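Collaborator request log, item 7. Partner lab (contact: R.S.) asked for a structural prediction of Right handed beta helix region to inform their binding assays.
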Amino acid sequence: MDISRFATGVYAKKGVLKMTGGSVKGFTEYGVMVGEGVESASLMGTTITGDGKGTGVMMMGGDVMLNMVNILKVKTGVRVEKGMLKILEGSVTEFTGTGVMVGSEVKSASLMGTTITGDGKGTGVMMMGGDVMLNMVNISRVKTGVYAEKGTLIMNQGSVTDFASYGVMVGDGVKSASLMGVEITGKDSGDSYGVYAMGGDVTLNMVMISQVEMGVYARKGVLKMEGGSVTEFTKTGVIPVMCHTDLN
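Returned to partner:
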């Protein structure tokens, strides 16, 4: 089924929603909106195309699975306020604001093999809380790759490339952030940081950082680096400030 030129393409208020294939396009507010009363929502192989504004998928609750869903030309790709989110493969591209936004009341969000590509501005993944897992997720062409304000962040493999300001930014409300085998590559220009940590326990295991002004800046908390590298930086490789640092 192809749905086009509505304020909201699909609005599920209660029950169970399943979408296979098809498209939602030309919407002004939401491509798919999942209400708080929905038990579960599953989208597979669906294409959601905006016109430069609005949100591709908005979920207020329930368990939502996006499998090989492609979202493009929106302000926000996926926004989650409550519940549990799983994104398997697929993509969020050509967004002007945020690729995936995880609210403070979300229990967990998991992305695997997803491609997130902006227009040179905005944030790839923004998390305000919950447990967020990014597994083999590739983020590019953004101002900030991943911004974690609270909760727990795990990044396994994948990459953050072609960012203008921050590859991964960890706020002081984050409990822990763990990166393993992630490649972080900036634009080799301007004031850019590979990893910028304001607090929490941050572990970088076999993380490769390059083409930034500063590789790792840790203001507070605990920083552990095992293996990996910081290369082609224009100013400083690692700056620990008022934090416990373990570099191996």
